[in-house]
Write a structure and sequence with these properties.
Helix content: 25-40%
CATH architecture: Alpha-Beta Barrel
Distance between the termini: 33 Å
Number of domains: 1
CATH topology: TIM Barrel
Number of strands: 10
Structural class: alpha/beta
CATH class: Alpha Beta
Strand content: 5-15%
Number of helices: 12
CATH superfamily: NADP-dependent oxidoreductase domain
Radius of gyration: 19 Å
Order of helices and strands: EEEHEHEHHEHEHEHEHHHEHH
Strand order of the largest sheet: 3-4-5-6-7-8-9-10
Length: 323
């Protein structure tokens, strides 16, 4: 496992981290299998784990805290997120900061996450949604300053809305944000335009999420794909998106080199970009952990292949089904 510098924090984290959304109560999730997957990730050198209070109302955090305590001999980095008080994803420009992240809410849910984790400190606390209209509001700024000063958290980040990579740059320029989490993959290349240059300038770390485009870039999606009742993917891959997603994935197949899988191609595309500090695929089974973490051993893609993948950029705008 290769490691990368996590922005101005100076941490040295695994370039492939662990996204824990699916461990918080997705259909088909199983705690025993989840813990086996987490332990296998640690064995293979993964040191960065990203969860959120909203992932099962703290359930995923409980699993992560147990993992960290069981591997106290290793330095594992814990990242979690404060849910919006109005319980609406994503943030909208018309939402007031007072309705989404009031000061008492920021503290209460940070402390709640700390209790779920059972740890004495959170490495990275993130706002689970964000809108740049809040950038200059000193209320959230005072709240995070207090949490840092008291040693409750070490660093602070924002998680950007889907397909809005520029909607956070003003906030980065306050100098108060240490990390930014953004959707970045073969299709979603837009963060390279403005966000990544700003992160380089400000020494803000980049966490790349949704490396497989919610499953499209695993190559397993079909025109008749369906999920159990209540699974959010039935909405995301509804009529407005499923057909286009399958077609986009199939168009990539001729570019996959012999001996490489589509998930491997997807991860190695992201790892080819030095602006990324860590990428966080979701992994609910040990075999997926082994396959995904192996991408670090093989490294990035050659420049020619990356150039051909540029043509598969897919510029999208947020829609009701993509929330």
């Amino acid at each position: 496992m290769r490691h990368r510098r996590f922005g101005r924090s100076g941490w040295n984290v695994s370039e492939i981290g662990y996204g824990m959304w699916g461990l918080g109560g997705w259909t088909g999730s199983d705690d025993a299998e989840s813990m086996a997957s987490l332990h296998r990730a640690v064995e293979l050198g993964c040191t960065f784990f990203d969860t959120a209070w909203a992932y099962g109302n703290g359930h995923s955090e409980h699993l992560l805290g147990e993992l960290v305590r069981l591997h106290s001999e290793k330095r594992l980095y814990v990242a979690t997120k404060i849910p919006p008080k109005n319980q609406k994803w994503p943030a909208r420009p018309e939402y007031r900061l007072a309705d989404v992240f009031p000061q008492d809410h920021i503290r209460r849910f940070t402390e709640s996450s700390l209790e779920h984790l059972g740890l004495h400190q959170i490495d990275l606390i993130q706002f689970h949604v964000w809108d740049d209209s809040w950038a200059g509001d000193d209320r959230w700024q005072r709240a995070i300053d207090d949490l840092k000063r008291e040693g409750i958290v070490r660093a602070v980040g924002i998680s950007l809305n889907r397909w809005e990579p520029e909607n956070g740059i003003q906030t980065l320029r306050t100098g108060l944000i240490d990390a930014v989490q953004v959707i970045y993959n073969i299709f979603d290349q837009a963060p390279e335009d403005e966000l990544f240059p700003a992160c380089r300038e400000l020494d803000v770390s980049v966490i790349a999420r949704v490396p497989f485009d919610e499953g499209t870039l695993t190559g397993t999606l079909r025109g008749d794909s369906r999920w159990p009742e209540g699974d959010w993917r039935n909405i995301y891959f509804g009529p407005a998106n499923l057909k286009a997603s399958v077609e986009r994935a199939e168009a990539l197949r001729p570019l996959i080199p012999p001996g490489m899988t589509m998930p491997d191609l997807a991860l190695r595309f992201i790892l080819s970009n030095p602006d990324v500090s860590t990428v966080i695929p979701g992994m609910r089974r040990p075999r997926y952990v082994e396959a995904n973490l192996a991408a670090s051993d093989t490294g990035g893609l050659d420049a020619g292949l990356i150039q051909r993948l540029r043509a598969h950029r897919w510029n999208r705008k947020p829609a009701p089904w993509s929330d």
